[in-house]
Amino acid sequence: MNKKIYDIAIIGAGPGGYHAAIRAAQYDAKVALIETEKVGGTCLNRGCIPTKAFYSSAKLMEDIEKNAKNFGIDIIGEIKPNFGNAVERKNKIVNELISGIELLIKQRKIDLFYGFGSIVEGSIESGFFIKIEGKEITEIRAKRIILATGSKCTINPSFNIDHKHILTSDDVLDFNFKTIPKSLLIIGGGVIGCEFANIFRRFGSEVTILEYLPSILAIEETLIIKELKKKFNLMGVKIYENQQIDKIETIDSRVKAYAHKADIKSEKRQETEKNMYEADLCIVSVGRKANIQGLGLENVNIKTIQERIVVNPNSLETDEKGIYAIGDVTGGVMLAHVASYEGDIAVFNVLTDIGGFDTFHVETDYFVVPASIFTALEIGSVGYKSKFLEDRNIKIRTGRFGYAGLGKAKCMGEEEGFLMIIVDEETDDILGASCIGVAASELIAEIALAMKNKLKINEITNTIHSHPTLSEMVMEAAEDVYGLSIHRKRRRIKEKIDLKEDMIQKFTKSEHLKKYGLIKLEFTN
Ligand code: FAD
To answer: Is 19 one of the annotated active-site residues of the chain?
Structure first.
């Protein structure tokens, strides 16, 4: 038994856990961080980062094929994808980031234990005892616990995942996976499925996506999905929607997936047409489930529903006082940055409860959660989608601007896609935005900042955007809400009375000028 009493023990060192550990250490807490595999979790080892390394290889390949010649670059010889090299590059990036996180943990004097952590017993009064089964078995004691054990791929027994022909995303992102199949079936047209479809198609596979819902990426804006499907179609990615998979099997090294229409009632299933899809390899990406096995939840008073940890949605505390849970293990929005954000919330609440730290109680706020999808065209979105608002009879106005109208995008050879902004018709509050095209996820960040700070749409249009940049699209789309985009022909909406107010504000001197004086602009070379 380690004699030290930690302020916080964090189980799981993914983007939720390691972020929380560093944040707590910044506020002078004594922190233990426990990880059974490698720091960085799913995100770094078999999620966000490896897929984005592959995405970058795929994108570069597209750029070379599409643009090299007319950009004035002659390629002498054949352009050939080399997936093995892309895998080596991906592995190097992952290893470098793991070392970086380990160094940060060390610099912050966080005690990192490699091993499987579980709660043995305890309470907020006595502290909690945690067993760590690594090379040796250790027990530590902490005043509070944060559970950040993440999630794993859902395994459906009838999908016969053999990790050879029928794979999960973990298999594909493994350090040693270097196969580009001639044909590939992807079960599940969600974010992960659509990202893999783009990567493998660019590296030469014939790709077919089978999706259960009426549409791939069903939660995105209809117009955005339409644009992505157009692109997938051009690339030759086949998409079959409304397909319920009954079984997947491997016969003579070929994978066969049997499906029927998903919207058929069970009593009619016998009569309905059955489809069979065949390929060399299959990736199953149909969701993830929380990692709670062996955590010792039964030794304390932690409730689970559908195998995920139940928390107070405001404080992130579980039913056991003093134990919090963050990230994928709570089954909420499964995104790395949400896990990290929840890490901050839990740490502040934990340290404030313990007392003596310069923190305060905080509550979660999920109004502004940007999300990015790196598929055939990049997608970024934040806030509400138009259908959600229309279903609730909220009157909205939408502004839209396409990359094709931007000088910078033309120079980059990136004219596909558009950005749309949704505004409350009565208040001019920005309620959401979606973008599809190059750097979509970066462009959405400006709108996320505006929404978080409750800016009105005119506050975006009143901000000078540098030329020529992609960010001008945010300004043009914002102006388009009232038909005022300079580079899009649309009738001006006249009835908005405070537009005059807006124009006045646009030309009013900033308060900062009075305090700091005029910024001298120099254009030097
Ligand atoms: P995890 O990252 O899963 O980390 C949990 C950690 O806890 C793991 O390291 C695990 O080994 C450890 N652990 C589990 N049990 C124990 C135990 N008992 N003792 C000790 N350690 C334990 N999100 C995005 O925001 N952007 C993306 O582009 C994106 N792409 C993705 C692509 C793929 C293919 C996948 C699968 C996911 C992707 N995600 C993406 C989702 C993102 O990876 C997760 O939402 C995020 O990693 C969740 O963070 P976490 O800290 O909650 O859990």
So the answer is: no
